[in-house]
Structures are given as structure tokens and as C-alpha cells.
Amino acid sequence: xxxxxxxxxxxxxxxxxxxxxxxxxxxxxxxxxxxxxxxxxxxxxxxxxxxxxxxxxxxxxxxxxxxxxxxxxxxxxxxxxxxxxxxxxxxxxxxxxxxxxxxxxxxxxxxxxxxxxxxxxxxxxxxxxxxxxxxxxxxxxxxxxxxxxxxxxxxxxxxxxxxxxxxxxxxxxxxxxxxxxxxxxxxxxxxxxxxxxxxxxxxxxxxxxxxxxxxxxxxxxxxxxxxxxxxxxxxxxxxxxxxxxxxxxxxxxx
Length: 254
Known about the structure:
Layout: E1 5-13, E2 16-21, E3 24-30, H1 32-42, E4 46-51, H2 63-72, E5 77-80, H3 86-94, E6 99-102, H4 104-108, H5 111-120, E7 125-133, E8 141-145, E9 150-155, H6 156-166, E10 170-175, H7 187-196, E11 201-204, H8 210-218, E12 224-227, H9 229-232, H10 238-247
Parallel strand pairs: 1-4, 1-12, 4-5, 5-6, 6-7, 7-10, 10-11, 11-12
Antiparallel strand pairs: 1-2, 2-3, 7-8, 8-9
């Protein structure tokens, strides 16, 4: 049985790790470089770094922070936020990231996914998707961009399928409704995409307890679960989370 992954997300704003609830009321949590190394030493499987205001502020990603994180950790490292061109993709990979996450800019220019896959292979291209429950959409979920600020006309499942066809090798699916609530992942949309797509789906948004990870990995059929608040605030450690998962039949690397 394939091992499930536990991924820690660092949302970075103005060079500092931050966390909010449903993309609002963000608080400063510390230095992303130090936090990345801490989680690496705790045994996290992968790290995701999002420059959360780069797209809205129409600027490039903070390459210096990416490079400093990459120097400290030796696990897969995904970077997103404000990546809008082939040159941006190249800069992030050269700075030490194994993967690039394309979200808002991919919606505006879908060919960016194809370019990235041609340059570095599908395994290096992640579609970041922020989904909002909306009964008006065929799948029941609407794609929102610009850090949760701008609704689009895209249906979440249809967009995920198109991104896969364009060359995305993985999807990080973030539920805006669950984001930062610590009340559990949105299992319905996670299972919908996980069962419909041939590529891995990483569940994001809402983790508050190890049981939430078990539920999304088993019932939601996700390949990986992304956590932030529950580890950033010291509520749980990564060894505690992995021990719980292993005890409840979820295969994890320990």
C-alpha cells in the first residue's frame, strides 16, 4: 500500500510565516526559514511555501527566502505565489524548490501549466486550487483566485481535469470554507477530485486534530494531507500525528 504523506504549509507574507481563518485576520507566527528546518527535523514528508500576497500585489515571489529554506531542508519542497512566467518557474526551481505551485496565474494563463511541465516534468508541477462550495456549479464547487478574493466562472472538477490534461502532476485542493477553522477537511470535494483524477490530490484546509487527517486520507481518499494551524500553534507535533495515523491503519513514513 502506498504511504500517505503529511505536508506542512508555510503561508508567508512580507517575509514572515502567517496564518488566518478563511484567508482573513492573519497573525505573525515567525521566521519561515527556522520553521521549515524545525518541521524537517520533526519528520515532515514535504513542505509547501506560499507567498500569499504575491499575486494580489502583482509582484514576484521572494526568491531569497525560498533559497534560504532550500539550504536547510532535504525533502520535497513546493513553492507558490505570484509565479506568472516561465522565467519565474525557472527561478524558483534554481533556488532549490522541487515543485512549483500554480494557482491564480494558471487560471489567467492555463498554458503556464504546459510550459512548466515541458520544462521540468509533470512531477514538478502542482495545481494549487482554492475551492468554495457553490450549488450553482456542476460539481458544487467554484474556483476562487487571488488568495480567496476573486471568484471565477470555473467549476472545480472541470478545472482540475483540464489542469491534469495540461500536465499538472499533483493538485493541492484547499477548501476556503474549511481553511483555518480546525474543524476538519472538506471531505466531499476532496473525495470527488481524488476519485475522478489520475494524479495525487493533497487535501488542504481545516485540519485541527490527527483524526481529521485520518478521515481525509481514508474517507476522502486523499494521497496527502496538508497541515498548518495544528502544528504552528504547537497543538500537535508531527510525530504525534504520524503515530496516530499509523495506529489507525494509515501507512505513513516514520
